[in-house]
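[User] I have long wanted to understand how a fold can be written as tokens. Those tokens are not coordinates but codes from a learned vocabulary of shapes. Could you go through the record with me and say what the backbone is doing? Thank you; the sequence and its tokens follow:
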Amino acid sequence: MCEPNAKKYKVTQLKKPWTITHATRHENAAESTSPYTIKAEVQTVVKATVTVTVGGESEAGAIFAKVKASAGFAVAGERAKTTTTTVSVTTTMKPRKTYVFFSGVRKVSVQWALNQCNSRGTAVVEKARGTAKTFGAKTTGAVQCGINAKAGSLAAKVEKTLC
């Protein structure tokens, strides 16, 4: 039994990998520690979208609210995208060390389904399903190559892929 005509969104197959959106590699060739502000160049643009693959009904706001609850952090709404301009990152660099200045987000993707109880309250029927993609808050930083950044962090991904 269910409440007649009640609708409910469900999300499954949650994935939330780190994505590097901006990066620039820089070497401090000086003999002393120096503060640097570097503009990290655009690598990837991440966009938030909802796609309907079966049925024709979807409410992006309700889907993104469900994604936020499943991901455990705030996510961007439909049609949002990461910045397409350079991002400034400042750090103090040790002498003769190489750093990567970066920015990135957790890219979130899910499968979603809209289920609705029939008018008699006797059965639940899938009305629509599809995919949703979005992203979390921007993370910026600089990582010294060879430092062994914390596993699972964006800095670790940057170090592994760009150092």
